[in-house]
Amino acid sequence: MAQVTTSQQVNEQIMTAQSAYEASRQISPRQRAEWLNAIAKGLGQHADELIELARKETHLDVARLQGEMKRTIFQLQLFAKEIQYGPHFEATIDHADPNWGMGARPDIRRMNVALGVVGVFGASNFPFAFSVIGGDSASALAAGCTVLHKIHDAHLTLGLRTGEIVVEALKNAGAPEGVFSVIHGREAAEALVDHPLTQAIGFTGSLAGGRALFDRASQRAKPIPFFGELGSINPVFVTEKAWKVRQNDIVSGYANAATMGMGQFCTKPGLLFVPSFNKDEIIPVLIKEFSSKKFAPLLSANLRKGYEAALAKVSSLTDVEVLVKGNEENIPSPTILMTTVEAIKAEPEILELEMFGPASIMVQYEREDELTEVIALLEGQLTCTLQAEADENLANFIDAVHEKCGRVLWNGWPTGVTVSYAQHHGGPYPSTTSSARTSVGTGAIGRFMRAVAYQTFPDAMLPPALQENNPWKIIRRIDGRWLEAE
Amino acid sequence: MAQVTTSQQVNEQIMTAQSAYEASRQISPRQRAEWLNAIAKGLGQHADELIELARKETHLDVARLQGEMKRTIFQLQLFAKEIQYGPHFEATIDHADPNWGMGARPDIRRMNVALGVVGVFGASNFPFAFSVIGGDSASALAAGCTVLHKIHDAHLTLGLRTGEIVVEALKNAGAPEGVFSVIHGREAAEALVDHPLTQAIGFTGSLAGGRALFDRASQRAKPIPFFGELGSINPVFVTEKAWKVRQNDIVSGYANAATMGMGQFCTKPGLLFVPSFNKDEIIPVLIKEFSSKKFAPLLSANLRKGYEAALAKVSSLTDVEVLVKGNEENIPSPTILMTTVEAIKAEPEILELEMFGPASIMVQYEREDELTEVIALLEGQLTCTLQAEADENLANFIDAVHEKCGRVLWNGWPTGVTVSYAQHHGGPYPSTTSSARTSVGTGAIGRFMRAVAYQTFPDAMLPPALQENNPWKIIRRIDGRWLEAE
User: How many whole angstroms separate alpha carbon A188 and alpha carbon A12?
Assistant: First the structure.
């Protein structure tokens, strides 16, 4: 196994990353886009090699890993386009106005600039899309930051090799040394969060680990933002009407979503609320669904231990029954538990216990209006899902649900999270540490920027994004109106 | 003196504010704008009464208070217009796309929504613009939040009366009870930061007080964002050439900016870096400047004590000399100190000591390139200012300065902070606790919002901001392009 990175090495890498940031902060979006596209190309050229490494370390199947690689490459390319369109700059120009309502206004122009050196912690469950050069690293680089990535122990060999490929691609594209580098080991991780030149952290992982690092980042002499995605239970609410119309479809979709990637998704539906059911009818449907699926070992021994412990804890709660029991072999099969809204109201802890793996709970309700009480008890979630019919009046219900999460789905399943302009992968605490921000989609870039305003500057001394003739041809807000470049 | 608000009362007010938030979260921007305009109108109707109360409690002169009232009214009206244009929603629509680069994309639509109940702490130095219904309250209300405002002890009578006027105006405009209320006292302040339903804090005040509340907000079981503006030294850098060309104008502008509002501005220039000078030439210019100005007691006895202590501490540092000594009477006159870049390099602490009141330091440098070393030693600032000539090449210098602050001024003075679209009143820690955000200008609204995405929703069940026919006529991003309503 590769040696861990020492604090001393982390310090040296951060100093190099700071120099690289300073050397590159003035480059055009077009040039930065070339870097992102060069990384995408490098990944494409080494895709087979990386997928094979990932398969060995994560037990995820090749088709899934190929899809994830495609997503990771696409994400870099989309961000490359996005920064040339330029909304992340939020470039805003207020020309001098002697008649401004509160008194004469000077010429003032604002834009977002990169924060500097950023630390990124990779997740174990998406070895490409949320790891070394996944969403956090890609958005930090797109913002103009330089990145130290802390490799997840569960795919260290893959992480190191991915890091080499990214560094090589950046070098060939002419980027200064230090724009991107990897570290590994716990001591290195802490040194990264503590370093005075580290300006922000992107993190995807567990609530316990994420909260500890959030506290560490917040308690620094100079606190830094910590963008942590810490997981979610992702309740799905099925109305009486929908259950009546398409019960089997719903159970089938649920069984699929709850076990996709062996349930190792932060958007796995962990709770399915349905009208009281006859379990003898449901069990065969679930078993039939599972019989057609291929299972695999969990991502790591550590994760397996955590899954077993969480499953044991939830199973031991009052009024929780096993509907379908998974085996406990090297390759675990799915477990579906069963409880009631009444039991949850008596013991709301069940709403906070994420079982990261192929387990989920079906929750029976007597009356649909009980669901409003459950929603009030919910912690912050990445997603909430409604399975309902279009002619139902659910306005109040949707209103209540939107308070608790960052994404609401209608008659879908929350597991897939597309990378696009409107995507929001975030939510109130504890699903994330920053409910205003997303870690998926083009909106993720803004996390790693801050604003600077320039007052009464000569045009030639302004950054290109704010010069009158708009040399970068980015979208800007001028005297109050957003305008695309001509 | 009015009785302090008890924790019990804070709890009741927050519950009412939560109900008001829930009752009003679906109203249109037009209706919300009417509320803001009603408050503006209420202030206008009671302007003379409020200005007289402010004059008595703050010692600020009437002309200044009239200007501040005008600004405060304008700010509410500008935010009322802004929310109808709608950029704060960041409404983004991605239509379903079977050919999306990473695989078929579902219809997904995102918007920003209000956080809920927000706590605001008023500053003592702007009894209107940064107090009860100043920038933080106005932007939180514009975002759709409901507000509890903690009145600053230094103008309690004014704060209570302003609160009554705001509550009355909202009531007459048809807003539910609890959209806005005031509290006062330290116990109430802590109860506000700790309450589970409080979703964010806006704060303007001291580093010590602000950091303590930031820590409190971050250490909650459910941490909440704390937007604190904690002060700044606001260095001004004068090039050799500018000093040669217009030394007297610069000294005059500096004397004016450093003593405006008795130096009680978070944007007061606390350090003026100039080439070595003959003090016998400067002193008469400064004294002449001060002789034409009217002085007044500081805002409060407490603030005066802090000012004297800070002034004594800075004066006691090695190689700090008094250039112009202020008196120590009830109405203090300005003090201008003098030191050198060399002394600062030996004792950088001077760069961190804000003297909140009519004192500032002139710093002599031998060579212009020494300034780069000083900039590297600077803490985060709200502003940095350059006094320079247009034909000088200062690209690297501007580059270095922009790392340290949120607003850079060219041949101006940082004291005035206009309310506009491009304004940024923020900066790296310790000037604020959130360098990405501003507390002045329309950008301030976004602090009190978070994002929610809706996936594959029937159009009629979407919030109006995201419905296909854009009933609110707001600006939106559609399939990647920002488009104004037709």
Answer: 12
